[in-house]
Amino acid sequence: MSVKTYTVQGMTCGHCVSSVKEEVGEIPGVTGVEVDLDSGRLDVSGDVSGDAVRKAVEEAGYTLV
Q1: pTM recorded for the entire structure
Q2: Distance in angstroms (rounded) separating the CA atoms of residues 48 and 54
Q3: Which residues form the HMA domain (predicted)?
Q4: pLDDT digits (tens, 9 = 90+) for 25-42
C-alpha cells in the first residue's frame, strides 16, 4: 500500500476537511484519507492516480496545488 501526499488550497474549517475526506474517500482503490486543516496536507493511502485525487478535491470545491 502506498501513501501519497498532496496540498489542498482553500480549506478554512472542519466542514472543508470533511468534504475533502468524503470525496477522496469515494475514489476506487483508496484505503485511507487524512487531512490536516492547518497545513492543507492531504495523505491518501491506496492505489489511486493523482488525476483522480485532483478531480475529487475539485469536486469538493478546493484546489490541489
Answers
A1: 0.94
A2: 11
A3: 2-65
A4: 999 999 999 999 999 999
